[in-house]
Amino acid sequence: MNLYRSVLNNIPTAAIVVDKNLRVRYANKAFLDYFPSMRSKGTLKDVTGCGEQTGVCGDGIRCVYCPLRNLFLDAAAHGGLAFRKLIMKSGDGTNLAFRIKVKPLGKLFLGIVDNAYEMEIAREMHSAQDIQQRLLPPASGGGRVPYSFMYIPCREIGGDLPDVYEVNGETMGLIADVSGHGISAGMLSAFVKAGWDRGEPSPSLALKKLNAKFQELNLDERSYVTAVAVRIDAERREICYSVAGHNAPILLKSGHGIDEIVMNSPPISTWIPEFGYEDRHIGFRSGDILALVTDGVTESKNEKGEMFSIERVEGILQRSENAEQFIERLKSAITEFCGKFEDDVTAIAFDL
User: What angle do CA 214, 215, 218 make, to 5 degrees?
Assistant: First the structure.
């Protein structure tokens, strides 16, 4: 048995050994990685932490429905062989879906999880999603300048970063869009979150500082970050903005239609390492709405290959009475138009 334990504990495949009385004689390290707060031997309840309150494993009301218990009962009835896909909760409350095969091991039963690697990836992805959600601002803001936003990643991990915060009593807004998709994009967006100077009131200087830190990563030309940053001065009724290769802000002027802002500048990248980003200013009136969107919004395509377009965004903005209504209508319209997304879809709107 010691030899079995030594072998099993040094393989990456999750394994559990159970006797005919359904007591766990051994669970290897890989198996316990999915049930981190539990024991390596004892009852099934001890090892998996199923949460059943009964003192004796197997006597509880829910024990009759225990997928792992039923698996080994099935194995005992069929010469020690069984195969099943199970859905269980791990020790940290995460739902786990895995395939497990049971084979006889002398007078014992050996259960092998044949997709343990996929399970580990799924767990890591779940953790990454949770971390990324914590990087987002509150769903809506009730500060000096109320706002609303949407963030729809096209994969489990997104590459867009929306942020709203205050500096010296003024509201700051940021949308960054990194190159690529998935895990690598998520890592780069986390870099942007960590590297962005939230204490810098000048949007252009914040972009310059981020660009300087980006150069230290020594990435190739395929990696880049587009961004738009704004500072809203509610007292002076003025917007200070700067753009790095991104869609410029869109301002709906109450009663006067759309004010299109144009600002040509390269992304944060190794293309032009020391580009001098600049601040520009534009005034606003009470009742105006300021919108920031990524190209995932404007360039998302339907089945016919038609892009959603900036014109559709502006049309929705013109028909909206406030930021929250604009975000809700934009989300509904682009979802109906595209069905599924090939890029992250992100927008922030401010009630001025």
Answer: 105
